Amino acid sequence: MLITSDSYKTTNLKYDKVSPRVARFDYRKHKYAIYIYLDPFHSGEYEYKFKCCGKPQTVKSAYLPIYVGKLENSLQYRMNHHINNFARNIDDSQNQFKKKFFQELERQIEQNKQSGNPDNLMPKSLDEYKNNWIIIIKTFDNPKDLREYERELIKAIGTQYDGSGPLVNKKKGN
Predict the structure, then answer these.
(1) Please, what is the end-to-end C-alpha distance for the chain in angstroms?
(2) Cα–Cα distances in Å, from 23 out to 132, 139, 173?
(3) Contact, 48 vs 3, CB < 8 A?
(4) From CA 73, how far away is CA 60, in angstroms rounded?
(5) Burial of 47 (C-beta count, 10 Å sphere; 0-12/13-18/19+)
(6) Total-model pTM
(7) Does position 86 have pLDDT exceeding 90, yes or no?
(8) Per the domain annotation, does 6 fall within a domain?
(9) Which one has a higher pLDDT value, 81 or 95?
(10) Distances from the Cα of 80 to the Cα of 14, 93, 130, 136, 158, angstroms
(11) How far is residue 122's CA from residue 141's CA, in Å, rounded to a whole number?
(12) Which of 17, 77, 82, 97 could be bridged to 160 by S-S, CB 3.0 to 4.6 A?
């Protein structure tokens, strides 16, 4: 569900991109986390409300969320797995929506490089995208809460597969 609000405009999400956000992720300390891929070329005011772990939750973003994933047992490489496979021309998922997003991202990055505008905040390489647009938003102490949060956030945002939203996730969490 997409919600816009006037109070949202007072936050500085243009640079922070998403809230909540884990500023310093330590894979030795946190075994479980949720990350989100953002679409840098579709800015707006996005707010998703859902219930998880018996509490109301809210995720706000200044950019369109495109993928939600989870890190389990400190497998941090998983966060970049999808974009790394795309860069290596490995299509391990047969996910047409994810492939289309990465192709468009690559095209936009190339256009952005050619524009030469130094004030432009958009990524100028896939590495820059990985470092600045794939963001850990929440950590957990146990896998049960992690999976529930992922499932409920995906449901709140919606997927392209069922026509309910922008996410390229094939599964609605597990």
Answers:
(1) 20
(2) 12, 11, 24
(3) yes
(4) 26
(5) middle
(6) 0.80
(7) no
(8) no
(9) 95
(10) 22, 14, 7, 12, 21
(11) 34
(12) 97
- Taking each helix axis from N to C end, the angle separating 78-87 and 96-115, rounded to the nearest 10 degrees, works out to 70
Closest CA to 34 of 63, 57, 14: 57
| Distance, C-alpha 90 to centroid of its chain | 21
Task: Quickly state the pLDDT bin for 20 (edges 50, 70, 90).
Answer: confident
In a domain, 122, yes or no: yes
How many structural domains are present in the chain?
1
Residue 15, H or E segment = helix 13-16
d(CA 64, CA 39): 5
Separation between Cα atoms, residue 17 and residue 133, nearest integer Å? 8
151/9 Cα distance (integer angstroms): 27
Write out the DSSP string of 49-66: EEEETTEEEEEEEEEEEE
What is the pairing mode between strands 18-19 and 32-52?
unpaired
Boundaries of domain holding 86: 14-157
90-117 pLDDT, tens per residue?
A: 666 678 888 888 888 888 888 877 777 6
Q: Is 136 within a domain?
A: yes
Q: Which residues pair with 38 in a beta bridge?
A: 65
